[in-house]
Each structure stands twice: as C-alpha cells, then as structure tokens.
Design goal:
single chain, alpha+beta, 60s Ribosomal Protein L30, Chain: A, CofE-like fold, five-stranded mixed β-sheet, three-stranded antiparallel β-sheet, 23% strand
Amino acid sequence: MTKGRRRTPTLLIPVQLPTVQIGEDLGKIVAGALGKCDLRLSDGDVIAVSSKVVAASEGRVVKLNSVRVTGTAKQLSRKWHVDPRLATLVLDESEGILGGVAGFLLTIKSGILTANAGIDLKNSPRGTVTLWPHDADISAARLRKSLEEASGKRLGVIVVDSRVTPLRLGTVGLALGVSGFFPVRDIRGKPDIFGRKVKATQANMADDLASSAHVLMSESNEHQALVVIRGAPVLLRSGGGSKEALLSREKCLIASNISSNLQTTHACHAS
C-alpha cells in the first residue's frame, strides 16, 4: 500500500473587527485588529473578510428614505411582497431578475445568481441597506496590497458574502472577491482513486475557503467579520480574481434550465 502524503493542516483563526464606518481605511483596521490579538501573518495566509465591512468602508450604504421608487419596482413589490424601495435598488444593481419568492427577488448580479442583487438589511445601520462593493476583486486586491506591505508576507484575500443553494435550507459562503491566488483548481486529466481520468471536475477553491470562513463569521452581532486561513491548499500568484470562477449561463446546469425571460429595466433611484 502506498503511504499517503502528509499534508500541512489548515487552520482557521477568527478575528473580531470593530464596526467599520464609511470611508475608513480597511487595511489599517484589519492590521490593527490583527495586532490587537497579537496575530502575525505568515506567507500563504488567506485573509477572508466580510463583504459588509468592505462595502461599508467604500460607502456602499444607502438610506432607504433617499430612494425614489419607480413604477416597475412597485409592480415587483406587489408581486413578491418586497419593500418597493428595495425593489428599486435591486433593479438598479442587478443585470436581470428571474423571479422571486415572498420577500426576495432572484437576480443575476456581476454574473452571479443571488438574492436581491446582494443587497442586505442585516448588519446595516437602521434605515439603510448595504450593497455589494462596486468591484470586489479590486477591493480584495487593495486590501491584499495593504496587508502585504504592512507584513512583508505573500497573502491571499477573499471578500466573503453569503448565498443560498438551490433546494437547500440556509446560507453558505461565496467568494465575492479574490486576490492573490488561483480561485479554481483544475482536476481534469488526473486519476481518481480507481485510476480513471477525471473528465469534468474543477474545484472552486475560493468558494470552498469562503464557506469555511463563513462558518466562523457572525451573521448577527458578534463582530466576527475576519478569518485568517493558514495552510490553505491554494497556489499563490500576484493577481487573480473571482471572475475566473464564473461560468456562462449556457454552460451552467442550473441557469441554463431557468427561463430566459429576464427583466432588465434599470433606472436612476437614489438621491
């Protein structure tokens, strides 16, 4: 029997962050939080940070009272029992609306199938909603550069949000933004345990790591918005981005079987 190769264990270290205010330097906040708990970064560490704190630092928080409701949003509000102001923002933020259930719209946002275009009331100040960062890959790259300069180490960064999975209850993690490592590992052509060549499998390392971090991140009031993943089985590089993990609708098993009757009306909504 061939002796198995010994692997370095993967360690997940949760770190508390303070409430991030609009316009604050996220790199300095993260570095300060790591210093406060005397955690020094190592080469190969992957920093997973909640999309909510990234969005807050970038000013992606909207007061609902500032939203000018559109006629199309009113129709969606009546049909799916969604706040018309939220429906207006969803129309603006999404590339298309596929349908919905009571309280939620099924949308495509940045090529990702998600609820309400990623807009969330949870962990957003009262009377506001938090949007996704404008470009989470750029946000991840900015944070990685800041932390690498401060630590002198080679790092990866994931901007983590939550998502639902078809026909499954509850949320799992989503790598909304990625920087510093290859987000997908290609298994095709490698042998399985019986020696057959793998034909189709590619492992989404970014989403797997995001889900691991999501287990430890708070969805309520614990301020657990940062996780350091040490020993992650990823290949580091200077660039990288989550868009490399996108799949066209035509090739997607789920999306290709959903009606293509997208509602794509966009308008100007917030003052």
